[in-house]
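Look over both lines:
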Amino acid sequence: MNTPYPLDCAPDSPDLTFALEMIGARHDSARVRATLLPYLSHPDPIVREGAIYGIARHLDDDTRAALGRMAESDDSGEIRTTAREALEP
């Protein structure tokens, strides 16, 4: 299976969502962003939500821009709200 997602799990797995959140506990922000950024565009909203929670403490200009786009135009209202909350100081 060749996907843009570095973690090899079922794409709709609750375990994947939890794993993405846990990756955010790492201290290496560059590595966290590199791992989680692709998941912000994952087709499953629950996976996108996990990526938002994981990346929220590791924001840079690129991730802020990605979350800003999600806050404005994600298909899921819940994801739009979660993205807005992640951008709050």
